[in-house]
Amino acid sequence: MNPSTQNSSASLRADGQTVSFGQRKVWDNERDLPDVVRLLDREYKDVIPFADIQSRMMEWNFIPREHIVEACDTLKSLCDSQGNISLHILLDQLTGFPEASEKDDMDANIDTLEAYKIFDHNNKGCIDLEGLRKISNELGEELDDETLTGMLNLATQDVFRKQQNIVSRDDFFSLVKSKVLN
């Protein structure tokens, strides 16, 4: 979503490497946003008093005051009975993406294991040229052995496994995780 095409002038959203507040860019590196938000948590309780958020936002002179008031109205509804807002809720609101939980990680690992089992169709404990060829043919891809071997070599950093043209389960998990994070 392009920040300049957003409907709500007070919405807080992230897009790629930019966090936008209405139509203005607030933060240029989304990965650092949790650290920036945690700076507001002066007592390390994983909650921030709403008054602190509001006063800090008012200090940001590059954002029009009316946008801050609208955003604060949205955030106020997310506060608990003591007038605090959870760091997790605030981050979800700012980025538009909930933080990953342990359950999400476990589900992702189960999904990755299921995908791995598809490639390791003979239960050899590794993905080999034969397994990769079978999958590529089933998908209608006509790839030569040189291309498939290159794919296997890219998926592992281990010299021995490169020579054997195999990918271990750990290699597969690392590859999937690195692609998901990038």
CATH architecture of the largest domain: Orthogonal Bundle
| Strand residue percentage | 5-15%
> What is the β-strand count?
7
- Main sheet: which strands, in order across? 1-2-3
* Poorly predicted sequence stretches spanning 5 or more consecutive residues: 1-31
The major pleated sheet works out as: 3 strands, antiparallel
Spatial shape: elongated
Q: How many distinct domains?
A: 2
Instruction: Summarize the amount of helix as a percent range.
Output: 40-55%
Task: Characterise this structure.
53% of the residues lie in helices and 13% in strands. It folds into two domains: 93 residues, Recoverin, domain 1 (Orthogonal Bundle), CATH 1.10.238; 80 residues, Recoverin, domain 1 (Orthogonal Bundle), CATH 1.10.238.10. With 182 residues, it is an alpha+beta fold. It has nine helices and seven strands, in the order βββαβααβααβαααβα. 15% of the residues are buried. The two termini are 18 Å apart.
